[in-house]
Amino acid sequence: MSASPSSVQAIELKGRMMLVSVLRVYQTDPQVLGEVLAARRDQAPDLMRDMPIVLDLEAVAESPESDLQATIERVRAEGFKLIGLQAGAAAERLQSYAELFDVLPVLQLGGRGGAPSGEVPLEDEPPVQDKAVEPEQERPPAAVAAVHSATRIVDQPVRSGQQIYARGGDLIVTGAVSPGAELLADGHIHVLGPLRGRALAGVRGLVTARIFCRRLDAELLSIAGHYRIAEDITEAERGENRLVTLDDESLKIAEI
């Protein structure tokens, strides 16, 4: 006799995340696009390969339809995996492209008080500001242990809108991390000042990764894809000298 549907667990909703990168386009010149996309990809080839992204075309939404279509095709040709489109007030115009390329039209992405996660401006000249692309970001990271080949040290505050990624190692930030800023590391994350932005450790699946901070007031915490947002962090868990670990697919916050 088979079990009744009510007695069998069919699904389970877990606090897991897959990060989304937003690729913002400011012009549709095919030569410029090709050069800048290739440069971005070459900055972190392993990270960017087949990386799912949302393409933000708001700044060029009034361009001819042929240019918009060519832009979408060029992004795909460079190896990015397009999963959605975004165009702000011009979102309706993208509906036909979403259907044509079999992707989702996305009205808006992003966390509280800051730029969308993984937002990568695409201009004539890449910004001087350090904004390593994360995948992540809707690309499910391979569940493999990170090779701690390097430790990245940031000797200045991380401002809102900045994204810092420590590929293949740990990330140490000696200053404060503002709301809207994002830290990512294949290994551990150490913040020697207040952590008010987002911190994502073990982004390539390292479940033993840790997050250490002098003061915890984060918008989001994540280890190996398991996450907690600000609303899920209690007042008792916030405070001075905190350690975040992953235990049985759940993030634990303890005082150290």
Task: Chart the SSEs and their pairings.
Elements: E1 21-25, H1 30-43, H2 45-48, E2 52-56, H3 65-77, E3 81-86, H4 95-100, E4 104-105, E5 120-122, E6 150-154, E7 163-166, E8 169-173, E9 182-185, E10 189-195, E11 198-201, E12 211-216, E13 220-223, E14 226-229, E15 239-247, E16 250-255
Helix pairs in contact: 1-3
Describe the structure concisely for a colleague.
Keywords: Cell cycle, Cell division, Septation. This protein is an alpha/beta fold and 256 residues long. Helix content is 14%, strand content 31%.
Structural commentary:
The protein is of the alpha/beta class. It has 2 domains: 21-122, Alpha-Beta Plaits, CATH 3.30.70.260; 150-255, Pectate Lyase C-like. The protein has 4 helices and 16 strands. The chain has helices spanning 30-43, 45-48, 65-77, 95-100, and strands at residues 21-25, 52-56, 81-86, 104-105, 120-122, 150-154, 163-166, 169-173, 182-185, 189-195, 198-201, 211-216, 220-223, 226-229, 239-247, 250-255. The strands form 3 sheets. Strands 6-8-10-12-15-16 form a 6-stranded mixed beta sheet, with no helix packed on it. A 5-stranded parallel beta sheet has the order 4-3-2-1-5. A 5-stranded mixed beta sheet has the order 7-9-11-13-14, with no helix packed on it. Helix 4 (95-100) links the parallel strand 3 and strand 4 (104-105). Helix 1 (30-43) runs parallel beside helix 3. The longest helix is centred in the first third of the chain and has 14 residues, at 30-43. It is elongated. The relative contact order is 0.13. The model is unreliable at 107-148 (pLDDT under 50).
